[in-house]
Amino acid sequence: MTDAAGPSRDGAPTLTVVFPAYNDAGTIASMVVAARLTARRVTDDFEIVVVNDGSVDQTGDILIELEKWIPELRVVHHASNQGYGSALRSGFARATKELVFYTDGDAQFDPRELTLLLEALTPDVDYVSGYKRHRADPALRVVLGRPYHALLRQAFGLKLRDVDCDFRLFRRSVLERLELHGTNGTFGIELLKKLEDARFRFREVPVNHYPRVWGRSQYYTLRHVLCQYVELFRLWLELSVRKTHLRPAPSSLPGVATADETNLAP
């Protein structure tokens, strides 16, 4: 991460909004605009970082055009699809403000509800995580997801009630104290496990979840599900059995290798 920014002129905390995006051409523009409108209401010092993770649709072109009109927008382009975790790590590494918020670029969450997280981030709280009021996914996915997420909470000893709600706000100093390595969809479990094991204080707030209106999820093909279970088992051995993350860690968050990405922001 780059050097920390000081408080904004109006005394409000400074804010970085991070969106990982993969083939989100139909939604990313509205997400960026909604995030900008919301951020402007709460602080005069913010930035929006979008990581285009090797999209093969028009996501990259749309973001390049948006940069011409939105001065707070910074776009990072991965030359190829590196995975959800890599996209988030790349975005976190480029955050320069006091607070870091992230959600996905597919519009299943509403960036305007960031204000709910900000209200819950009192001085005694290190990060705030949303939990879905109602999961707006197909019925079969909801039914299969309940035991899966209960198993994850049990296996990794997580207290968070919704480990699959990618709508979170952190103090940047908290992220800088974690060493994160994940590149795929299991990144969220790694993040939450390391946060809880480091005894960071959290609060949860209910947020709305909406049906997918563009594209399709990359996480429910047979190949991906099998790979996900293999990776989760490896992660469980590392974090819950060997507990290697409890050893002394570097003070900064490693970014994604820059050899395979191009930052087109001015």
Structural summary, described in words:
With 266 residues, this protein is α/β, with parallel strands linked by helices. The chain has one domain: Spore Coat Polysaccharide Biosynthesis Protein SpsA, Chain A, CATH 3.90.550.10. 37% of the residues lie in helices and 17% in strands. It is built from eight helices and eight strands, in the order βαβαβαβαβαβααβαβ. The chain has helices spanning 28-42, 59-69, 84-93, 114-120, 139-156, 172-176, 187-197, 222-242, and strands at 15-21, 46-53, 73-78, 99-103, 127-132, 167-171, 202-207, 261-263. Strands 7-5-6-4-1-2-3-8 form an eight-stranded mixed sheet, sandwiched between helices. Strand 2 (46-53), helix 2 (59-69) and strand 3 (73-78) form a beta-alpha-beta unit. Mean pLDDT is 85; it is low at 2-6 and 255-266.
